[in-house]
Amino acid sequence: MMRRLFYVSFFILSLSAHANEWQLVFDDAGASAWNTKWFLEGDKASVENSENGMTFSAGPNLREHASHAVLWTKQSFEGDIKVEYDYTRLDENLDAGVNILYIQATGLGTEAAPTDIFLSTEQRREPWMKYYFLNMNSLHVSYATDGRYVSARRYPAADLKDFQTGTQVQPIYRDIDLFSPGETWHITATKIGHRLTFVAERDDEVHEFEWDTSKYPPVDTGRVGFRHMWTRSSQYSNIRVYEKAPQPNIVAIILDDAGWKDVGYHGGDIETPTIDRLAEGGIRLMDFYAYSTCTPSRAAFFSGKAPSELGIVYPIQHDDNYGIPADVETLPEVLQSHGYHTALIGKWHLGVESEFAPLAQGFDYHFGLRGGWTDQYTRENPETGYDWFRDHEIAPREEGHTTDLITKDALRYLENVGGDPFFLCLSYTAPHVPIQVDPDWSAIYEGKYDTNTRQGYAGMMTQIDNSIAQIVEALERKNLFDETLIVFFSDNGPSSPGKKWYIPEDFHEVNFYGNDGHYGDTGDLRGWKASPYNGGVKVPAFLYWQGTLPSESWESPVIIEDLYGIIVNLADGASSVDSDRPLESEDVIRASETFYWRTPRNLALMNNGWKLVLHADTPNTKNASPELYNLAVDPSESVDRAGDYPEQVERLMALLQHEFSKDAEPHVNPNLLDK
């Protein structure tokens, strides 16, 4: 599918204009006034500026503690950081010891070693190394050493004897013949979470060193410093420190078969106060499209691709040995690589076999069903039996409505999250059939609708809204709400009124509201679930992030796979806006491009406000009569304009052929087509 640049680049084009992955927070060319940005420890040391940079020299006497020296930034740095500088060794003394880069140093918070090391700098006028490793929290990288090694340490040591082994982070890189006198090297040291890297570059040479510090407590705040052991003299220039823009937690809330007008903020008659409050406070995606059935929409969201490119055009069944191909990098896999913990709680519907299940596709944790639907109280499917998993194992049976079980487990998950960012996908099974709900939720709709089915459906929506309120309360209680992006959408429109699907009415014994009337409300949109018209694919959606995203209605078209690009870019750190100007819609809105839908029975394509519908399985079907709708004036797709605008039909058919040519061979279970 033609990529919609405006939306995949939602934050690349807008938020990144205000905040890159790394934000420059300290910049010193080294040419002047060193003491405005640095303070020096070591009475015998000196610092001089020139147009070539800052020359830092330790004391003159070998093996004298007083001839050590440390040059500290006056500024402290938070979170993940990157330090860059050009380094030239000036001394030629082979016994000159070592250069050390300190990364985020603080004191231990004691009376003798206050957290702010500037407050105790007088104690280190003779900068004996012992004080530092016994009284500071810091990471340390040794380089340009007389022993020809590069190594890392994590302070503090338990005692003096513990320094050599207790602080050493493995591995030690030996026989490193770098940093000869007179050579200028560009140094880049990066600390992201528990990963520490040190890269030295010169001309065509690149030397990379890496350490895993996960066995140690994290280092996440403090100053940067340069240590010289006795007689060492070096020149530093172009010194820059970057902080990584904060990574938000991400909670994706997926509703199952909710219609365009089944939420209050779209003018619906179901009570959804929490959903409405979040939507009104965020970016309301007023022209948002999914696919017409569950599996394709979920495949698009988790892959960032049109599902037909993966061969997915219809729901996957229990006897299908199929899912997202292994060579596709899924959204949770990308987020894992960015340090996120990932959890799916609820419905998967992208493959039942273990090789296609959530834990094989990037999730650390899964609690819920792998298939498409079950009884809301027993987790039983009449054809496939009990379908409820915790990770790889069948989960024990427990009482309660599926919505409540999903919410309860999500609350447990949130209660136990640590300091790392998380991606929590809450994939509810409601208001999908079977329409079952506790009477407490449906009672407020008694007598409001003509049929029990719609009453039960409305109750299921209100129950979900209450669940979302509990999630919000948990985030607030953990002080995570302001740090969390909430992504909300439905996977497709509701079933057509009275649609029986494949559900035997006598299978459901608890609080079953039947299937004899309207399920959801699509407003003025034409069509229902599994149809190529907008009632089946245009669904409610919004993005909410308190204090970061604006409250705005976004009228430009968006499709579900574009959410992948938004979330991935946020994980890269493009998460804050220019403090002088809040994010506005004109920062991000771009003209719509091409959207494409494929099922075993229909094809549809939308471009520049025109939509083409073809009731055929290929664009080459003979005698298939394309339908054409001008959505700008006819959003209900009520008037076929194919006869009036043949040039538009020809243009859109060419685009349809192009999109179709990119599809993989579709996998469609014939048993489903018969139902």
What does this structure look like?
The chain is an alpha+beta fold. It is 19% helix and 28% strand. It contains 14 helices and 33 strands. The strands form six sheets. A ten-stranded mixed β-sheet has the order 24-23-20-19-25-16-26-27-17-28, sandwiched between helices. Strands 1, 3, 4, 6, 11, 12, 13 and 15 form an eight-stranded antiparallel β-sheet that branches. Strands 2-5-14-7-8-9-10 form a seven-stranded antiparallel β-sheet. Strand 23 (389-390) and strand 24 form a beta hairpin. Helix 8 (402-415) runs parallel beside helix 10 (452-477). It is elongated. Mean pLDDT is 91; it is low at 1-20 and 574-591.
Shape: elongated
Low-confidence stretches: 1-20, 574-591
Mean pLDDT: 91
Q: β content, as a range?
A: 25-35%
Q: What structural class do the secondary elements suggest?
A: alpha+beta
Helix content: 10-25%
Number of helices: 14
Q: Report Rg.
A: 30 Å
Short key terms for the protein model shown above:
eight-stranded antiparallel beta sheet; 14 helices; 33 strands; alpha+beta; ten-stranded mixed beta sheet; elongated; single chain; 675 residues; disordered N terminus
Topology (elements, then pairings):
Elements (H helix, E strand, L loop, with lengths): L4 H4 L1 H9 L3 E7 L9 E4 L4 E5 L2 E5 L11 E10 L2 E9 L9 E9 L21 H7 E8 L5 E7 L7 H4 L1 E7 L9 E9 L2 E8 L2 E8 L8 E8 L4 E12 L4 E7 L17 H8 L2 E3 L2 E2 L4 H10 L27 H7 L3 E6 L18 E4 L11 E2 L3 E2 L2 E2 L2 E2 L7 H14 L6 E6 L11 H4 L9 H26 L6 E7 L43 H4 L3 E4 L7 E3 L3 E2 L2 H10 L22 E5 L4 E5 L2 E5 L12 E4 L15 H16 L8 H4 L2
Parallel strand pairs: 16-25, 16-26, 17-28, 18-29, 19-20, 19-25
Antiparallel strand pairs: 1-15, 2-5, 3-4, 4-15, 5-14, 6-11, 6-15, 7-8, 7-14, 8-9, 9-10, 11-12, 12-13, 17-27, 20-23, 21-22, 23-24, 26-27, 30-31, 31-32, 32-33
Helix pairs in contact: 8-10
